[in-house]
Task: inverse folding
């Protein structure tokens, strides 16, 4: 079986009420990424944050984060695109990544493409109410085609994201049309907690994705669980040949004693070793995904 690619999803927009180890500042992000690399991660996914944890939408801050990460380790860099308003024009949404790609010190390796649209209102089940009722994460086919061209044109690897089977079907259509080149990398976003848009973070939720997936050696898949713990799925994913994306951005892991991102990565790497699957380095990941430029 191919080597396991572990990605550290270090912060998203997580706060620190439960787990204080969520990195926010560029220096914290760079140090956390290096610690995750040492523990076995090949990719780091991050969102730029202000000193108080608020989202930072500043391209300069993204550049500062990336140059810090690059100076501290060889981990592959996967920033979010979502640092402009979601209703912005496609050129604007992908523009920062494209301009960062021109500078070797601030160049990302991946840029994400969420392969469809969905409601992202949060539902508070305990109180029986929605927190909002009109948030739509909108990614039209035309927008995604623009992203695919811009990302490939900038020499970056598109990172396909699927929230449900419809997103996966859209991703497969892009592969068929060669709008995205094989080998492709596809992340299944399971969602526990308040976001209802993904399959639940259960074996059954993951199986619903996998049962629909063609047997395509040019398609590598990974899994995260936004809003819930994922350690319970790690063995299943490792044995099924998938890859793993995990971190404090998705869940605080308070029920596991509030570990750091690197501690979570080390747990996954240890399971892989126990189950007889080697962990990929960043360079091995580049080779598996044909990213050498
Ligand atoms: Zn993210």
Result:
């Amino acid at each position: 079986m191919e080597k396991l690619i572990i990605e550290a999803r270090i912060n998203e927009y997580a706060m620190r009420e439960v787990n204080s180890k969520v990195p926010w500042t560029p220096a914290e992000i760079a140090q956390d990424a290096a610690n995750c690399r040492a523990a076995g991660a090949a990719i780091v996914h991050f969102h730029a944050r202000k000193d108080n944890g608020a989202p930072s939408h500043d391209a300069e801050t993204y550049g500062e984060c990336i140059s810090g990460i690059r100076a501290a380790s060889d981990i592959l860099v996967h920033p979010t695109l979502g640092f402009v308003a979601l209703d912005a024009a496609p050129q604007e949404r992908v523009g920062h990544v494209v301009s960062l790609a021109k500078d070797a010190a601030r160049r990302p390796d991946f840029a994400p493409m969420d392969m469809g649209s969905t409601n992202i209102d949060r539902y508070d089940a305990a109180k029986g109410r929605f927190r909002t009722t009109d948030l739509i994460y909108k990614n039209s086919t035309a927008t995604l085609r623009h992203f695919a061209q811009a990302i490939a044109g900038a020499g970056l690897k598109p990172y396909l994201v699927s929230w449900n089977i419809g997103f996966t079907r859209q991703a497969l259509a892009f592969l068929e049309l060669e709008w995205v080149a094989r080998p492709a990398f596809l992340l299944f976003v399971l969602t526990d907690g308040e976001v209802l848009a993904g399959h639940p973070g259960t074996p059954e939720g993951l199986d619903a994705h996998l049962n629909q997936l063609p047997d395509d050696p040019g398609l590598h898949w990974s899994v995260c669980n936004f809003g819930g713990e994922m350690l319970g799925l790690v063995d299943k994913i490792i044995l099924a040949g998938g890859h793993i994306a995990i971190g404090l951005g998705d869940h605080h892991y308070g029920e596991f004693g509030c570990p750091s991102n690197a501690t979570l990565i080390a747990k996954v790497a240890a399971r892989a070793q126990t189950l007889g699957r080697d962990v990929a380095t960043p360079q091995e990941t580049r080779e598996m995904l044909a990213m050498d430029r």
Notes: Residues 12, 45, 47, 80 surround zinc ion (CB under 6 Å). Residues 33 and 44 are 6 Å apart (CA to CA). The first strand starts at residue 6 and ends at 9. The two ends are 25 Å apart (CA to CA).
